[in-house]
Amino acid sequence: xxxxxxxxxxxxxxxxxxxxxxxxxxxxxxxxxxxxxxxxxxxxxxxxxxxxxxxxxxxxxxxxxxxxxxxxxxxxxxxxxxxxxxxxxxxxxxxxxxxxxxxxxxxxxxxxxxxxxxxxxxxxxxxxxxxxxxxxxxxxxxxxxxxxxxxxxxxxxxxxxxxxxxxx
Length: 168
Fold this sequence. Notes:
Blueprint: E1 8-18, H1 19-25, E2 34-41, E3 52-53, E4 56-58, H2 78-91, E5 94-95, E6 99-107, E7 113-125, E8 134-140, H3 142-145, H4 154-165
Parallel strand pairs: 1-7
Antiparallel strand pairs: 1-2, 1-4, 2-3, 2-8, 5-7, 6-7
């Protein structure tokens, strides 16, 4: 690695619907199981081809440089803006509040170091419409997610969110 300070910054979103908060909003007392959106990556992708994952993508300078600065010198919420753009582009959905879950680092097969910021949020609106980066999608329960060839760590992240929303 030539420049040890440069990283690709990406963010991902574990999007869910149904579950306890959905039931409460609908005035229902029974607790349903949450369903999580997973997508299958195209077999032509450089990183994790053909694997199942959650929506997300890279931060681009266009996500902030062409907008008004929040302060004299800075842009706030660049990651959230980028993630909302990626969700809309990849799956055509809107989500409610995005909540930080965790961060992780890895090195891509082409040697580029990546920092991933993982978030979770409740589905707000839209119908799933995949872009060219994905070839399939499913809304799955935590138990069903185990049956898919997920990128390493995605199941555990979904499990973390499931515990949070079910207050376990």
